[in-house]
Amino acid sequence: MLLSMNRNVLLLLVFFCCCHAQMQVIRSKTEALQFIAKQRYRYNAKAEELQAIVQDLVLQPLLYSTQQLVSETALKDQAYVTNESPTEKSKTTSETGKLSEEITKMTVTNLTVKPMIVTNITMETTMMTATNTAMKAKTMTISSEITEKPASQCLVDLETFQSDILVEEHYAQMMLDSFGKLPPGILQGNILWLGLYDQCLKQSREVNDHQANFTAQYCVVSLIKDNNPQPILNVGVCVPDSCNSADLMELLNINNESNITVSVMCHKEFDYSSGAIACLTLLAFLGCLILVGTAIESFNKYKEFEIENEGFERLASKNQSILTDNEQIKTIPLNGPIVSGKNNGFFIQFLLCFSLLNNGSKILKAKQGEISLGALNGFRVLSLWWVILGHSYGFGVALLANPTKIVDVLSRFTFQAVGNATFSVDSFFFLSGLLVTYLTLNYLRNNNGKLNWVMFYVHRYLRLTPVYMLVIFIFTTLTPYFATGPLYSYIFDPNPAPGVDTQITLCQDYWWTNLLYINNLYPQPIQKQCLDWGWYLANDMQFFIISPFIIYLLYHYFFAGIAAWCILLLTCFSSLIGETIKHDVTTEFFPEDPTQIYFVGDAIYVQPWTRISTYLVGMAVGYILYKYRGRVRMSLFVTLLGWVTATVTGLAVVYGLYGNFHGNHLSKAGTVVYITLCRFAWAIAVAWVVFACTTGYGGPVNSLLSWSAWVPLARISYCAYLLHPIIMFVFSYSLPTTVYFSDFLMVYFFLGHLVISYAGAFVLSVCAEAPFMALEKLLLKRDKSV
Fold first, then answer.
1. What's the burial of 182, exposed, middle or buried (CB within 10 Å: 0-12/13-18/19+)?
2. Over the range 751-786, which residues count as b (16 or more CB within 10 Å of their CB) and which as e?
3. What does DSSP say about strands 121-123 and 116-118: parallel, antiparallel, or unpaired?
4. Which of 112, 232, 369, 413 could pair with 122 in a Cys bridge, judged by C-beta atoms 3.0 to 4.6 Å apart?
5. How many CB atoms lie within 10 A of CB 563?
6. Is there a contact between 16 and 59 (Cβ–Cβ < 8 Å)?
7. What percent of the chain has pLDDT over 90?
8. What are the b/e assignments for 56-66, b being 16+ CB within 10 Å?
9. Predicted confidence (pLDDT) per residue in 11-32, tens digit
10. Stretch 483-498: mean pLDDT, rounded?
C-alpha cells in the first residue's frame, strides 16, 4: 500500500533519488576556464555529501510542505482516510521520517522494485526496496472539498504520470528512464547529469482511460545557493508538457526557508522570428544573385570555348587560305557578343561579382603578387590553427564528464603550447602591423608619396565589415534553429526569462558595438559581448586607424616616426605595469588566492593600450623590409645567432610558466616583468622568423611557410576565424550527453573543428566575402589596393 503522501510527492521522491546532480552552464571558453579554476577551491564532494545535500536541502522541504502544496493547488479541507489506526498512522509518520533519512544512503544503480525493470529500477505495488531500504505502502484515499479554483493541469498530469509508472505503462517507464541519474566520476567534476534528452522528447501518453493525454518535455532543474551564478545541484528531468518552468519552480520551492532556490529551464521549440525570416530572405536573394552571376560566367566560358574551336577549324580547313598573324588574333563571335570584361554594362558587371566560377578560381589560385611576402601565408594559416586548437580545448570543457582532468593536462610540459595558445593572436597583430606598413609604404613610393587617406580607411572598413555583419546576422537569427540538445535551447534562446542573457540576446543588444569596432571597450566584461571573439577585430581596427600617422611620419620624417613609435610602445608597457599592480594580476592559472585575476582576463587582455606592442613590432619589420628587402647580407654566424635567439625567446615565452604548476611560482617583480614583456618578446621572435624567410635566410622554414598550398587557406582565414567558434558552440551544445576527456578525443575534435571550419569558411568566402570585395572594387572604381 502507498504511504499517505499527497499527489506528486512519490514522483518527486523518485526523481530526486535518481537524480542527484550538479551542473554549470558554460557559454564560452572564458567561462569554461574560470569554472575549472574555481573548482580548485570547492570542496571535494563525495557521494555521501551530495546525498546529504539532497536530503537536507531538497527532500526535507518537499516532504514536509505537502499541505501547502495541496492547499495552493486544489484542496480546501484535507481529510486523509486510511485503513490505519492512530497508532499505525503515527508509525507510518515515523517510517516516513526514517525513509527520508535513509534515502540519502540510496544507490540509484541498485534501486530495485519488482516486477517491472526500468534501467535497473524495479517496482512492486506493495514494496519498494532501495539499497536494503524498505518502504511499506498504504492505500491512501483523499477526501476533499474542491474549491472553485481547479488544480493545475501540470499537477494533474504529474499524478497521472505517477500512476502510470506503477501500472507499468511503457511511455512512463521511458520517461522515468530519461531522468538524469547519479553517474561515476563525482571527484573528477562530473557536473552534467543530463539524462536522455532525445528519448524524453519522443514519449507521449496515449492511454484510453478517461485521463488527459500529454507529451513529454525535457527540463533541467538547478539548485542555487545564495544567489550564486553557479548552481550547486542540477539534473535533467522528463515531465509532462503541461508543466512549464514556472509551475515546476513553484512546486519545488514550497516551504523552502533556506538560502537555496530552485531554477528550472525547459526545452523550447522556436517559431521562426521576423529576424529569421528576414535573414533567410536575404540569403535567398544572395543565392539568386550567385546563380545568375554563375550562369552568365558559364555562358561566357562556353562562348570563349566555341570561338577557340572556330579558330582551330579555320586553320584546319583545306579551302581556307593561310591566315596572317594579325588575322588570327582577330576572332569574331559566332552568335553574339561575350558579356564579360570591363566593356560590358554596369548591371552585367554587378552580376558577375557573384559568380562562383570567378570567385572560386580567385580563392583557389596559388599565384601571388610580385611584392607579396610568401612566408606570411603559412604563418597566418598555422597561427589560426593554433587559435582553433586552443578553442577546441576551451569550448570542449563545457560538456566534459571529467572536466577537472584538464587540471592535470595543463600541468604537462608538452601541453604548455596549447595552454598558451593566446600568443597566436599576437602573431596576427604582428602580421597585420607588418602588412599595413609594408604595403602602404610601397604604394606611397610608387605614387610619389600620394595616397587618398579617406579611401584608405573606407577600403579597410568595407573589406572587413560586410561579411562580419552577415555572420552576426546569421548567428543572431538562425542559430536557434541549427540543432537541438539538452542545453541548446537555453544557450541560444532568443527570448529568455527577464534578467537572463544568452548568446542571442547579447547580439540583439550589442551588435552595433561590433559594427563600430568598439566591442572590446563596451560592453564589459568580455562575456557580455556579441561574438566575444570579435574583440580581436576591434583591436586590429583601432590599431589600423592610428597606423597612418606613424607610416606618414616614417615616410616623410623618419626620426619623428621613430619617436611616435617609441611613445606608443612605452605607453603600452606603462599600462601593463600599472594594470598588473593595480589589479594584482597573476600568471598562475590556479592562483592560491581565488580573487586574483589571471593575466588573460579582461583587465589587460582585450584592451588596445595593453596589446599594441606586437602590432608596433610588426610595423617596424614592415618598414625594414620596405627599405632593405633584397639588399640584406648576413654572415652565417649572424644568421645562426638570430635563429637561436628567436627560438630560445619563443620557447621561454610559451614554456616559461611551466613552474607555476609545480610550485615554482614567479615573484611579484617577476610576474610584472613577464606580463609586461611576454607578448613583445613573442613578437620579436616571430619578427626574426619572418625577416629571415623574406630575405633569403629562412632555409627549410621558409620552404615550409612559403608552400603554395597555404595561399588558398590564407585567403579564407578571416572567414574561418569568424565561423569556427560558432561551429564549436553548435556542436558542443547539441551533444545529447557529456563526453569523457581523453587526448585522442580532443585531437579528433580539433581535426573535426578544423576541417568543418575551413569548409564553412570557403562557402562563406566564395558566396559573400569575395562578392563584397568585387563590389567594392566595382563601385569605388578601385584598381589598386593598399
1. buried
2. eebbebbbebbbebbbbbbbbbbbbbbeeeeeeeeb
3. antiparallel
4. 112
5. 13
6. yes
7. 49
8. ebbbbbbbebb
9. 443 344 443 333 333 444 445 4
10. 89
